[in-house]
Amino acid sequence: MARELTEVGVVGLGTMGAGISEVLARAGLSVTAVDVDDEATARGRAHIEQSTERALTRGKLESAERDEILGRIRYSTSLEDLAAAELVIEAVPERLELKTEIFGKLDAICPPDTILATNTSSLSVTELSVATARPSRVIGMHFFNPAPVMKLVEVVRTVVTEPSVVEDVEALAARLGKVDVTIGDRAGFIANALLFGYLNHAVSMFEARYASREDIDAAMRLGCGLPMGPLALMDLIGIDTAYEILDTMYKQSRNRLHAPAPIIKQMMTAGLLGRKTGRGFYSYAQRDSAEIV
Ligand code: 3HC
């Protein structure tokens, strides 16, 4: 019988962490959301308020319901506040040293039966697990952007993850209204391993000026029925996140498909990170407008 988790923590309140916190709170769980400073927690809070406001204006949420959801999320700048969490989901940037450090700290703070999950997109869950004294209670729980909308959660088990932990996390995914798929610990898991070669290829096509960004995106939307084109999707994912994922997969597989197209690094250096900074392949000065950079 799966354990019904009620007290959860989220570490990192960027696009994914904020989205995950919202999903958890919407399902009635009590969430402690932690980031490094007040500015970061305020950004996360604003993201969640905006997302639930959008649901309110679309008639998908009642005002009282929205207040309840927002009331279930407590913000903090201290990992110590996760001492009572039954599950912690880490969603900090894709850097192994940073994640390893956080897992070490969480291991010292949380009770031994707390499940430590990572939302990593491409790093090794096994490597993170051995930064703790409880590798069998470490698991991958990979959400997709935007987390409140996308139905999938990839549950990543390592060779030592306890079956009961997989069961608890799968049961939670179902309570969140998600569909889970389970996979072993390979770079990119299922979806990113298949998606990012395609995204990278689209960026190379744009970089070589074979076609305009609008035409590349239109081809995949209108010709292949995808909800958004690859360059718009890169902007949604975040150029920095996309770079980290490609770089990690390339280092692991040496598959040329994943060697990040040079323009991705250049955009990252120039701060063109996509929607979150207002500019990427497109400009978002006016919401969702598509101006040439
Ligand atoms: N937060 C919350 N809700 C959002 C949202 C957001 N950021 N963006 C859209 N929504 C909701 C809207 O409120 C709307 O809800 P409703 O149907 O209940 O009214 C619904 O989503 C549809 O939104 P819109 O009508 O505004 O726009 P679209 O129909 O174009 O949908 C989209 C937007 C859902 C983003 C759609 O374009 C899409 O599915 N795009 C592909 C996204 C994708 O591929 N994500 C995976 C990326 S890879 C990844 O995340 C892995 C990671 O490791 C990098």
UniProtKB/TrEMBL annotation:
Residues 188-284 form the 3-hydroxyacyl-CoA dehydrogenase C-terminal domain. Signal peptide: none annotated. Residues 8-185 form the 3-hydroxyacyl-CoA dehydrogenase NAD binding domain. It comes from the Bacteria. Belongs to the 3-hydroxyacyl-CoA dehydrogenase family. This is 3-hydroxyacyl-CoA dehydrogenase. It comes from Trujillonella endophytica. The chain holds residues 1 to 293 of 593 of the full protein.
